[in-house]
Amino acid sequence: MHPLVRDVLERSPQLSTKPVEIVLSDKNTGFPIVQHRSKGRSAFKRALRQPSVQVNPVANSQTTQPLSPFTTPQRTVFNDKSSYDDISASADAILANMTQEERAKGQEEIFEHFGDGILDTMEKLKLVRERRKNNSQPSVQVMNPQEAVLPSTETKQPRRKIRFLDPTESDIHVYEPSPSSPRRPLGLLLPPPDDPQEGENITSLKSYQTSSKKHMTSLGDLASSADDSDSPESIRRRFFPSEPRPEDHPSLVWMLSQPTSTDQALLDNLTSNEIRYSLSGVPLSPSEICELPTHMGLHHHASTSSALSSDAPAGYTLEDLLHLSRSSVPAQRVNILGVLGKTFRNTYTAMFSFEETPMRDVYLRVNLNEMRRNIFDSAVEAVVERGWIGQRAVDVLWEIIVGCTCAEMRLTDIESFPRVDLTTSSIPNSNTTLEAKSRSLLLNESSTFLATLPVQRLLLPLKSHLIANSLFNSPTYNAILDIIYILCHFANHAKILVEPNISSGIISTILEGHLSSNLEFDNDNPPNEKPIRILQALALSSRDVAQHLLGPADILLRYVTTMQDKLRLNSIHASMLRETLSFYASLMRYGLYANIVSTAHTHFILLLSNLRKYLLDDVVGATPLLSTYLEILELLIVCATNPHQITPQHDVVWSQIEAFGWIDQVFDLVDTLTRIPMTDGSSKEIELLWTRLFHVLAAWTEGAHVNCVRSGEEEKKKTIMKLRPHVLGGTLNISLRRALEQLSLQKANMDIFKLNSHIHLINAYLRLSLSSMLPDHRLPFDSFSQDLCEISRVVLRNPATFDIFQVIISTNVHQSLSEDLHLNIRSLSALLFLILRIRFLALDSPGAKILWFADALLILHTFLPGDQYFAKWIIQRICETFSWDLMLRILPETIHHPQRGLDILLPFWSGTFIPQVITIDDDEDNTRKPCYPNIWAISEDLSRITSLNLPSLSTLRRQWQAQDSTLIFPLRSTWTLWPLDHLLQSGNSFIFKTLSTNWDATEIEVVRTTLIFTQVVQQLNKQYPSNLTSLSVMAGSETIFTCMKVFMLEDDQGQLETGEVYRDPFVEECLSKLLSPFTLRNANKQTTDFTSGSLELASRSYLGKRIPFYQFYTNFLALYDSISFSHPLFAKLLLPPLSSSYPRDYRKLFFGDYAHVVPTIRTEPADILSSGIEEYLWPIEQDRQILGFFMNVLFKYSVHGFLRWFIIHHLSANIWSDMHPTLEDFNPNYSARLLRAIFSQDKMDTVKNMVLYHQTRANLITPPQCYQPDPKIIEIRKNLLENYDISLKEAFSNLIIQI
Length: 1299
Prior knowledge:
Layout: E1 5-10, H1 43-49, H2 81-96, H3 100-114, H4 118-134, E2 160-164, H5 219-224, H6 232-239, H7 263-268, H8 286-291, H9 318-324, H10 330-353, H11 360-364, H12 368-383, H13 388-408, E3 420-421, H14 434-451, H15 455-469, H16 475-487, H17 491-497, H18 500-503, H19 507-515, H20 530-541, H21 543-547, H22 550-562, H23 572-588, H24 596-617, H25 619-641, H26 654-660, H27 662-674, H28 683-707, H29 713-728, H30 731-744, H31 752-771, H32 782-797, H33 799-809, H34 821-840, H35 846-860, H36 868-881, H37 884-890, H38 906-913, E4 950-951, H39 953-961, H40 978-984, H41 990-993, H42 1003-1023, H43 1029-1032, H44 1036-1047, H45 1065-1075, H46 1095-1098, H47 1100-1103, H48 1109-1123, H49 1128-1132, H50 1144-1153, H51 1174-1177, H52 1184-1196, H53 1201-1215, H54 1228-1239, H55 1244-1252, H56 1271-1280, H57 1286-1298
Parallel strand pairs: 3-4
Antiparallel strand pairs: 1-2
Helix pairs in contact: 9-10, 10-12, 10-13, 12-13, 12-14, 13-14, 13-16, 16-20, 20-23, 22-23, 23-25, 24-25, 24-27, 25-26, 25-28, 27-28, 28-29, 28-31, 30-31, 31-34, 32-34, 33-34, 34-35, 35-36, 36-38, 42-45, 48-50, 50-52, 52-53
InterPro entries: RPAP1/Rba50, RPAP1_C, TPR_RPAP1/MINIYO-like
Domain RPAP1/MINIYO-like TPR repeats: 996-1199
Region (Disordered): 131-250
């Protein structure tokens, strides 16, 4: 490439003389004489007064001047054409006399000195001379081709003038980034193998041929390499022509072109630490990493290595970004924090979208939880900084806490965040698909990460940013509010946020910075609803947190009292007022802040009047605020129904509700709503308003039943009279009919989200109908209620109804479900319960009662946390109506029956459903058990509620699969046996602490009644199967552990002569019938899954996490050893943990420490509790310690039944290789030792059984056939003994002869 500079024009230097100033000096010292400046002029002024001297320039000449060290030699300039012609002719003569080799050498010297572009330069100079010649202009004659010097003139021009050539594409070159030399270790050069086939798979290095000959580069080679001027070979040719070629020198092999792999091949080998990101947070492909130019800012000097390139490639690894996020340069730190936020957002978006993208495989290699924690640590360190660094750190925290959480739950915005507690996380199932399992794992990691966040480290810096941005609705301010809002959904973080030492910093900052001062809103200062949503989320988290928010509730009351005149629908005032009322509703669900009735009742009455007027103008716009207001009104009525349940007590009383006349206004609102025509655009809103009105009136009639005379007959009649015309016609009738029609159309698949609003309307109507029922027990709206019941029965028998509940806790379903799915399903549970209540009014025959019992037991398994009062009502009705005559119809073969009714068991079930408000002694934290609210408010529920946020769906699944003892709902199949659990823990049971003084049942009566009722429940569930049978019928492991608990009971009241409960004939009969379906004899008749969990899993609901089942089994075995006296049923329960599916510790305990109890167990193989004998026989036991225990028990004691078969099978499989499943694990030496030990024993019958025993897994042979001699087996084992000692052969032959 030739230079851009063409020629330089110079003038001769202008010489100027300057008089030298003579400075006098002192004769004595030699130094200049000092003179004060006040006595003379300064040097500057003296220089100004000196005249300047003009010096004429020296003309150029051809004569050579003597050179000094400070002068530049003059260039020779030719001004006449003759001199140029003479030189040209002389050069042509010299060129003609040169040989071809001399010309090539001269070309090489020219190119080496001037570069490759000298040809283009001389061509352009030739064109310039010809153009000047044609224009009759004097040509420039130069001696040096690179420098053209013009004659100087006397005109005033710059001393030096540079003229540039016109640039072309070949003149401008952009250098692409090229990787540096790879640092590859050089291996030893070995000679090739002599055998060609031996070296086929060996990659040999090319041999290096030494040569002292210099490689000459021709002009053609230079021209051919112009397109690859920046390659390593081109650089070598241009600047290092004397060096050998790369293929001739091992040190230069790296310069050769390497075969490139495809991007996909490199991606397959890429690890998460090697992923490199651009400044926009997007992973770079391998080709981009190697080819991106350096001017994009993606090349740096980090020491991180990459598998894609040995140089510093383009992009930043996560390690690089984390390192740079702690930079001391503020601008760099701000930019890198932004890159971290983008990188994390792109990663979690790709992971949770499950859409096929080109780089999705790269994202899936990232450990999202690890990335999240590392970026969080960097953001926390930066959030304490002020200015842009802190604000950018807040943005990163928003991505980590808010953005990722919303993406996991597939939420479009934060406002649709589910009202669930996310403190605990999910555990994925082993049977889910890969996509579902990966998402479940991510949800698990995310929930665990958020639940363990160090919130204390965030609060102080977030407070400072809130103060700095509270006056402006800035993005940073909104981001902080979003972060706090998400943290409020974790109960442990919500408690920290309202602690006294912290709430003064966070809650007061939110209130003082926004709520307390922004009552006058305008376009420049719009309101922000997020602070009120934060308070509401805090109130939902727990009762303790809600009690800290009563102070802020008084501040928000200003919105209610000051916005009456400003209220306009679809305005910012209505939105803020609606959020405020929602916050009050959350407090009232705990029975808190009910004094608002006396504080601002006039404003609430005025608000209802205004809303009723607005309803006629815009039903869609008025519905959100009006529905929230009706919820407040319902809660106030519920609080006044039983003032003892609110905090503080008697904060509102029933007389206040009557005095304020709210119900009359509600009836006026009913009349107003019936005058509004129903359209497609307003049908949902009208349906919602009718639902709210029904709940308000139902709460009113329920409260009147308690607080008014004659159980509120007058109030009920008034309600029926007002509603009857509207139920039979009008918009209310249309809404009810359409809801029933939609419900009846759901046959195969039920869309609960689509039906939810219709089900809520039906539930509200049925609740009002039941609460308004007069003493004659007739429904107030006969014709419509009958139609409703008919359709509801169809829903109850629809399999799709129970498929929804199966999805919640089943382990074989897709995991990617909404975290609040169960919140929508609760409405269906309430509908089934209300249908059951209506059917209870018409139980007129034993057959109807039995069918009602079966349906009631089935509906119990559809209840979720918060439905405890529904379950309590069903249990109470069952205990009231159940009789032993009905039991004999269900269990006709029963010989005995208990003397007491089910009423003695009611305290155990009701007390477990609804925890008492007392502390539990056996809890370490000494706190009340969790209690969640009913789907609609109940007065008895107010003082017991601990949290309004139900556990998330992930939490329910985790607790269900882990057999968590704290999970009451959904009910397990063993709920009928809860009285036995309380008997075993009577010293610590809270039920016994709260029992009535009238309860006088004995222990044996409780056991008898519990066992017979359990049989009845199991029989009904089998006679009336449904999709919930797997949840309602006890599995084999649960039944076995239940019977084990019965054997642990003792009769301390002296009613039995023996002192043990299990020796009672009635109890023994019940236990035998419960275990009979799970014996090997009835294996083909089993209708339930026996293998659904082991005893270790089934015992967790009773033992908890602290006590392992092995400890329980040890105590159980010791109890058998001490008091059983070979009880056959007791002995049968000892055998299940001996199967191969349990750890070896159980077999070591049984055959080692308690070997003396083996002779007392005579259980036959057909009576074993198992669905298949294979789990006891395979895999073969190979632990030598256990095999030693087998030998000791077999030849020391008299072993019978199944245990004899069990021991002989495992010993014989270790002796005879024909029984061993894999010959690779067979040990002939150990086999010979066992056989020698057997032949030395005196029990010949046992020895014969060991020698002749044969078994195959394909065709199982049971005793005694498996001990019979088989000629084929005997011949095979003779051949096996050929490699053994001769003594063993002789002993075997003698034994065969005796047979």
